[in-house]
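Lecture 7, part B: from sequences to assemblies.

Below are the input chains for today's worked example.
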Amino acid sequence: MTPEPADGLAGLSINQETVKQWSLPELAEGCRAAGIGSVGLWRAPVQEYGVERAARLMRDSGLTVTSLCRGGFFTASDPDERAAALKDNRAAIDEAAALETGTLVLVSGGLPPGDRDIAAARERVADAVGDLAPYAAARGVRLAIEPLHPMYASDRCVVSTLGQALDIAERFPAGQVGVVVDTYHLWWDDRVPAQIGRAGAGGRIACFQVADWVTPLPEGVLLGRGQLGDGCVDLRGLRRQVDAAGYEGVTEVEIFSPALWARDGAEVLAEVAERYRRHVL
Amino acid sequence: MTPEPADGLAGLSINQETVKQWSLPELAEGCRAAGIGSVGLWRAPVQEYGVERAARLMRDSGLTVTSLCRGGFFTASDPDERAAALKDNRAAIDEAAALETGTLVLVSGGLPPGDRDIAAARERVADAVGDLAPYAAARGVRLAIEPLHPMYASDRCVVSTLGQALDIAERFPAGQVGVVVDTYHLWWDDRVPAQIGRAGAGGRIACFQVADWVTPLPEGVLLGRGQLGDGCVDLRGLRRQVDAAGYEGVTEVEIFSPALWARDGAEVLAEVAERYRRHVL
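Predicted structure of the full complex, as structure tokens:
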């Protein structure tokens, strides 16, 4: 039984990392109370809770799982490491299928130690996507390549722009491989409007995620994302661009922020909903 | 009287921030001792020492000043702030002329507080460059637009790619406005080989700077550059690209690193020279 979403929140999905302080049952109950009908989940907490059990909890709570984060880390050149990555990604696809989400987000991986050939690393990503796409498609899961901000290019994700993600995705059928448009990673790039158009025309936008850009960046630059409206990103402008490109999915709010994690989850969720209405919708 | 550069070091210039622990006279003496004939200078230490006095020191030491860092910070929309920025940049041009360097490096500036229109901010940069270019040219100084890594787009430099820098530079004569190619800022971008070609064909490469990319990035991400060879950048590959594009200037080593600043300057300089020979030359 799907609860009715609250006013204006039908298109909102909460990525669970935004309220990382919550367990999965707390997330389900918190979303129900806030009138939010969709969530994005992460593999580690789902595995810890149990995949089938998490799937049942989501079903019983009437929650739609809009994405599973994340597969990927495809850049190892060592054959054993590569085989292990592919095996782990098949498990991630199985988990996505169990959660009944059609979208598995892929973060490509960084450069192996001592490696200075980023173009070759990107090709290894494309090869792995090609290996996995049919397996995913057979299970109703689409792979969604996420470009991460160039500050992560060496140690996390060699795919840094929407253009690069599309260059890989477009080698495969649109039903099998799409891309993630995340405002935090892409806001600075003047080519993004054209690339969102290209992605939309090809039916490639698998997921639209939002977070704001705030400075100073913290050490390691991983946990410095801003609450919607606190930074310099034209969130509504980007949302309108994906809309105009034909994207009909939800907006997933994914904010990694120790400041949000230190607060009461329900209070954070209410703030996110208010900011979403004010700055995105 | 220009001293003969040491073997293999004729094309090497030391940006003074790499050995920030040194005063200007220490820099001049250290370069002489190491057989290095060129330096890049910064405005603040030059002003502190005295512009004319610094110019005389460089001349008397036989050192060529390959660039002055930096003008710029053009993104204010407030008219008074904008006028102040233009005035300060004319002073920077005068200082560059006094130091007999043909290259003033420009860092564009970030987004003003509350501003979410990065495209408009880039246009304000282009307008300021247009205002200043004739003044600079009349004094024998070329403006060199430096794209900074996208992680600085909000608070330091809205020009993030070599393509964006060229889009601005190419509105003006090549003798008046060029670009800086800095490996630290550009290494991750798959379009850089084509853009270096474009820059070279147009005679736009005013300065080639090198530093390596290492992680984790420190808080604020300003002072985390790596010694040549310590990171993941294909420094030699990029140097060969600027060579192939027709660049005939020096390679300026510009590494902001508290670890290097904590050491003996002469030891750092010797290490830089060795790393330059091994990883760049």
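Note for the exam: Residues 12-279 of chain B form a domain with the TIM Barrel fold (CATH 3.20.20.150). Keep this in mind when comparing with the next example.
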